[in-house]
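Hi V.,

You were right to ask for the full record rather than a summary. Here it is.
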Amino acid sequence: MTGHLLALSIGPVQEFIAAARRTRDLWFGSYLLSEISKAAAKSVQHQGGTLIFPAPASCTDLKPGSQLNVANVILAELNDTDPAAVAGKAKKATKQCWRTFAQHVFSQCQGIIRKGIWDDQVDDVIEFYAAWRPYAQQTYQKDRAALMRLLAARKRCRDFLPAKGYPGVPKSSLDGLRESVLLPPDRKSAGAHCQLRLRAGEQLDVIGLVKRAWQPPDGNPSYPSVARIAADPWIRLLQSKEIDLGPLAAACDALGRAVVHKLNTAKGSGHPQYAAFPFEGTVLYRSRHPDLCEETGIPAKHPTFMQLVKALDKVSQAAKSKGLPSEPSPYLAVLVADGDRMGAALSKLASPDEHRQFSQALAGFAGKAAKIVREHQGVLVYSGGDDVLAFVPLDRCLDCAQALHAAFGTALAHWSQRTNTKLTLSVGLAIAHFMEPLEDLLRYGRAAEKHAKQPRPGDIHPADRNGLAVHAVKRGGEPVAVRMNWPAGGAQTNPAQHLRQLADWLADQSVPGTVPYDLHALARVYEHWPAATVRDAIRRDVLAVLERKQPRGSSKMPNIKGQIQAHVQDAQSLRGLADQFLVAKAIGA
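Predicted structure:
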């Protein structure tokens, strides 16, 4: 036999990752897909294949539950091994891995499961595609490209098995593709439905139920909610003013984990960044209390719940007495980052060994990304290669984006030079309300990431890729978007530092909060002025408006006037500056 390149693709990505209502659904879907892909990679390796992507540093990297995130596409080198047989065993390994997770959940929840539908669905979940072709070391680039075309063609020729419908059975609430495996709730099963935090009428198929119900070995299935992430700046602010959160934490403990999820804050396996208040953030927002009571089945007038309300009132009053907000902001940042020109760099790798080294560099960045997000009080959903998805508190999102960008540049610097390709990281930040549907939060984040890669007309910097885009999606208003390029040497402004500075000026009232709205109003006035006359007129008007502004803090108005003189040419550029202030105001909220 001759040497072959083998490529595998595993899914379904949409059902495992995107279809989610709770942050735990989203995180565990990503984790589950990684574990299933890891099982396939391990099978290939055990059969004598040499992995190219991923390229684990040791055998322990492919053990279940290891820190290594494995993408759903696997590339390996086979020598004197039948690729069809290797692919067949890898497929069995993926299905067995999925079955292990599913069986664990079935044993815990069988009292509320429609077994017939479960059995029909559980073996029809994994999508597995394989392609292979002979290759030679001297033609690796051409052979790998041809192999990936073969894999793409195989995926387009997927098998469509006949659907097996169940009349009268509701569909899954997450994606509507499969029937629900849940029995209608009754008195016996009401407790189990509450533990799954099922809303009235919410339905889950086999994938949705596994994502919602699987428990890790430590028995704590909790995962930081978007509400907890949004509330984190407020909690840290209370800490800095020495406001005691002890009674509130004790009240949460008294309600128990079935009502108020308690986070694992152990280093390594948990979320130590939330040790100051290791509970879900829903309890901190009074507007969410009715939904919390409905989901968990606890009466709002229950003495233990009333104790929680009293403890929260006491904390709010203490905050107010010190001039702090009595409740946290409900906004957070969705961070989506992606490497630039990765395909171009891959096409220039001349051998499997080079490709493995490149894969290890990407794995190194992925590990650093997890640490960076945690250090910035965020929660990582996925970090595999050059892709990052995370939720980050507003006050740390710009610093987190900047740190990720710098870490990526450092990790890939050697390969940028070696492949003569500018490998950079584009980062999108979407600022949105935590009550937005999770699928919308993800959509906002991906739109920001797409904008970071590709500028729009009117953006400050016209160069594509290597960008930072921040989209502020306020409830009841039009989204505001700002996009700038990261510095590429010279005196170019760092976008994260620039927006942070504007946010600080607005927060300490060095610049009046009405300035961005005044700038927008003037931009509308000059919308259709001819280019020959607009620049001087619009600058004079803007400066005249700013002269009348009297900031309460130490004035930064001269700095703003300098930016007007340097950057405002017409209505479009003035609107862009106003949008920067609006985005900065949203970040500093």
